[in-house]
Queue: 2 jobs
Job 1
Amino acid sequence: MNEQDRDRLLDLLADRAIEGLSENDERELAELLDRVPLEEAELFEDVLGQRTADSVTEPGDLSPELVRRITEEGERMVGGPTIPGPPAPPSPARRPWVERLSWLALGLLLAAGAAWWLRGGPNVVADEPTLAERRSRLLDGEDTLTRSWSAGPTAPEVGDDFDFGDVVWSRSEQEGYLRIRGLPVNDVTREQYQLWIFDETRDAAHPVDGGVFDVTDADGETIVAIDPKLAVREATLFAITVESPGGVVVSDRSRLPLLAKVDDAS
Amino acid sequence: MSITILQRVARGEQSAVGECIARYGGLVATLANRLLRDIREVDDGVQDVFVELWKVAGRYDPDRGTEDAFVSTVARRRLIDRRRRNRNVPRPTALEGDLPAPTTSDPLERHDVADRLRDLWERLDDGERDVLDLAVHHGMTYAEVAETRGLPLGTVKSRARAGLRRLREGLRHEAILHGEDPP
């Protein structure tokens, strides 16, 4: 960045902190910051914020009505509904009579050819549903949305009509599944895929971490259960990035192969 | 370090909402009165600020400054944006009395960056400090400062910009001296 650009950048940052910028100046600032990102771009605002906090010697009052409005709104936006966990797989049936038998008694029963034992008791061990089955059940949900993946900035090179799969999400169940096709197999010792869920009620700079996963079959389909770390109230965008093993707290989004926008009904 | 109110909000603790409003509602109300031109907008402006706080609470970093400074920064930005959208409403520029001296914060909340900033602010040139004080204490725009002090607009802008740059350099220098990452 040349000295003139730097001076202009600092002037715009100062003006923004003091009185805000016009639309043209905001655009100019954004372009300058794009060319040369400045880590302390918010420093002037922080400085005035600190000074402002110091300057308030007698805080004002809020009317009870205003407090009530702000509180109600805050309680809606913070925390939200109790997050129901993903449906637990059915428990294996218990066979209480097994626990009462000693190994000796069990051996005797087996020795006596107790075929009736092998037919099982009143409860049967239920097969745990597969991810595909759980995904299928969720598709019937009232508020379930399904959106196809589209190519992100670092998507693999494939044909324009390539089907990358889709994401299924239920707000009421706080449950969802990714169906992924076309992503390369990742070397788990070096990298993993990570899902991010952008929430209308949260800061876009901090999307909700939806969990990490691996792709083990480049030619087939991978189904992954979404594992949101926080309640997702109003999903607006799903994004998959490539990160170090275990994932990251904040992604630099430098490798972003897939996106699915909620308002693009597909 | 104990967890702060905003960090609890960021974690989704609804019980922190009421505490946040009780703790910072007065601060935000004062800033809304300073920065907004239309008294009828103050309540909406305050509510606007808290909506923003619920969204960005997770960005508060105790290493960068005090929590009330973060709230003030968020409030200033939202209220200035709101003011720009309604810029046609005139505001009296007469000052009443001297500018209040900033309080030294509660010792329990004292923070290195805040202390350094206080010292650096006092060491600004008189002209630079005056312009910035009017912006902070009275929420004045450049034009309003120029009118209040009878100065050319360009002079006011130069002093404000120079003052902020001087504070920035001072904070960076102090951070380096203390072996910290410069802001």
Note: Chain B has a mean pLDDT of 85.
Job 2
Amino acid sequence: MGRGDYLGEFEQVVLLALARRPGAAYGGAIHREILDATGRDVSIPAVYVTLKRLERKGLVSASVAAIEPGARKTRNYALTELGREALERSRRLLERLWDGADLRPDAP
Amino acid sequence: MGGPHLPRLARALLERLTAAEDRAFVIADLDAHAGRIAAGQGDRAARRWYRAQLWKALPSLSVDAARRALGRSSHLGRDVHFSLRTVRTRPLYAIGFAGTLGLGLASALLVSAVAWSLWLSPLPLPESHELVRIYERENSRALDEPNGLSWVSPPVFTDLELASLSTLTGVVAISDQAIEVSRSRGGTRAQIDAYRVTDGFFEVLGLRPLHGRLEWQEGLREVIVSAAYWERELGGDPSEIGRRRLELDGEPHRVVGVVDLSGGYPRAKDLVLPLHFTEDALTEGMRGARYLTVVGRLQEGATVARAEAEVSTFISRLGETHPQNAGWGSHVIGLQDDLTAPFRDTLRLLLAAGVVFLFLAGVNVAGLVAARGVERRPEQSLRRALGATRGRISTAATIEGLVLGSVGVAAAIVLALLLLPLLVGVLPAGLPRRSQVALGWGTVATFAALGLAVSVGIGWLGHHMSRGGRSLSPGRRSTPRGAGGRQLLVVGQISLTTLLLLSSALVVGRMAQLRGTELGFVPDEVLYAPLVLPESQYSSPEAVWSFVREALDRLEARGVLAAALTNPPLSGSNMNFGYRAEGTTEQAWAQYHIVTERAFEVLGIVIEEGRGFEPGSEAPEIIVNRALAREHFADGEALGRTIRLLEVDRVVVGVTASTRHFGPDQPPPKEFFVPFAQDPWSVSHLVVRGDAEAGRRLQDVVASIDPGLPAPAVSSYAGRVSAWFTTLRLQVGVVGALGLIGALLAGLGLYTIIAYHVRSRSREIGIRRALGAPSGDLFGQALAQATGLGLVGAVIGLVSWVWVGGWVAGLLQIESAGGWRSVAAVLAAVAVVAIGASVLPAIRSLRIDPREALRAD
């Protein structure tokens, strides 16, 4: 894997929030997903900046449309195949690291 | 029911920091979530949340902004590369852009440097704004009249020095005559430039010693030297101060101090000696010998106007007991204003011209860019179709302007550095602070920044002036923007050029007129030499007269027609003495000359009535000029009348033609002449009629009588008259150069208009050519447009001249605003400019290939 193929922490959070949503989601919805799932009130502009970066990496795709008839137009993001693979890689990486990690203070 | 009241500042900042393509979506999402919070927790919670969003977003938005900037910088490199390619592929355009901007910028830079050095920058003396120049003034004359201002006589200066003036801390006198002292070094003698100044000179001016002290001890022969002289002649050795002696006027003087006189005021001279007035210098009669330069320093809080009122009152009161001061007052002026007064109007004209030329250069370059933009429309349409935003294309045009502008700025600086010595060389030699004219780094940096800012603005403006079609869509016509405005500007440039050329014609005509003015004497083949007899050896009038008589006799024996006189014409001296004519009770003033009997013959001054002086005559005789005779006596009745001068009643024995003593542009003053033998001065002039050989004989004769005297410097009187025209030549040069630059810029402006017009209509011209339009028609059309614009501009300029001409004539001190010959010459010049500017685009219109023109859209 080349430089930049590993996901940053916030990138993972955003991608996971996107993965939890069926279909596409816009920035505000992703923000709400993160808030509801983790209680973390992240910055909406930061979500958009991250999504733009992920789009440049090809991990998400973007389109502008109204999510529902009559709703305002939003820029909606969806996971790409590359994005799913990146998330899988991140999970395997973390699982391997967690496996064997001992958080007890008196562990040898 | 409305949404929550959102914090406006936070919202505005978030809008500003977010990338343009994301802005609408980000703000909508923020507003929506804030609305939800407001609905559940209230407006205050929503506002708090909104502000927190701003703080949280700052790091990521900052990184994103930096990334965008870096992304643009990669475009920047490409834009610079393409701009440099333009220089290679479109050299004429690049030269036109950089050259025109460089010309305008160099003009502005040069005139700013000159105006700053000569006029605007303060004198390099402490608190220089407190220094004033003091003149005596005849109350009945206006300041700008001939003899309206006079220098100060020794008795009046001494009175001022002793008076308790509340507005001045001190006054000092500088003897401004051609003081020459001789020194001996290894047996040779030489003349040295020196000042004689009264006590307090250095304190009043605020000059500090570089070494030693700046005061003389009573009764001792001491001299203060300039820093330049100290370096040059004394080796710059501090140990010489107080020890080294110089032989001046045959007497040893000890060097006691060194002072830097390179600051521009007073003019740099080698030595400074004390000025002590003899008893003779303070007699009643010497109240009319007004030859001292007097400078004072204002008290803190005092103004020039108050000082003038006080000094005027003081001098007026002197008139109650001293007849030579009756009717006289004073004029006090800031020293800096006094030094720059003769040239201020010319400098103002220069400054205004510099600003105007920079503006015109900018306009012309914008026109060039617009014409270039028309040429690049197909390229830009293609780029738009490939996805380039309007902003990118505009940025590229701006970068091109900046790159070419940088070349123009560099060219301007080089041009200014090259031309500055030439410009300084043209300035009159006696111009105060002339040696200080220089291009300071501050001035260069300011104009460089200005030039870059202008070129950025021009690149952007020119691009927008050329914008027409938006895409490659067929059927969309390109419409040139602002064509009418550009034509108006070019017409304005031609009008301005017309005015400048008319001003040039005015000055040239004035110069020709003055050159033809009858001077009242004949300077051709006349040589003059100042004669300064040191008081230590020629302390009595008899000794002075003996020397002068011997010198003239020896010159006559060698076949040289020679004479001695004081206050020669066009010498810059002003010896206004009081007199009373027979039959009058009021005192009047006239120029006082002491002459030997052949002075009139040598100088070619015609004696119109009566006779000259007889050699050896001791009778109290006087010769007057026509101006004086006309004032007091009826025609033909001056001879035999008396003039009371210096307490002596003198009989008029001759009436001469009046001379233009102060210059060809000034009316002849009243003059009277007294025999040299009856009032011999140790400072006078020897004049001879002849060639260089006569001048050598004059020097030989002086050396043969007194080998200790330095050889007098012999100069040509014709050269002196020519030097008088220096200021006028400066005006001719300046105004002529302005006219030429204006014509160049106007020509370029016309060229851009016609070129733009040809390019914009290349399709139409191509079709016309394809349909067989004669070449002459197309050529003539371009020419007609140029000459039409030229004619309109010239007519506007001529009409404006009706009002402006009088002002320009007044500014240049010329009586009338020119005649039909000037107008005809200027119209011809404008026609040449118009035709010249249109030739190239007209030829280009003939070369338009109909097939290419039809293909391009």
Note: The interface with chain A takes residues 14, 17-19, 22, 25-26, 28-30, 32-33, 49, 52-53, 56-57, 59-61, 63-64 of chain B (CB under 8 Å).
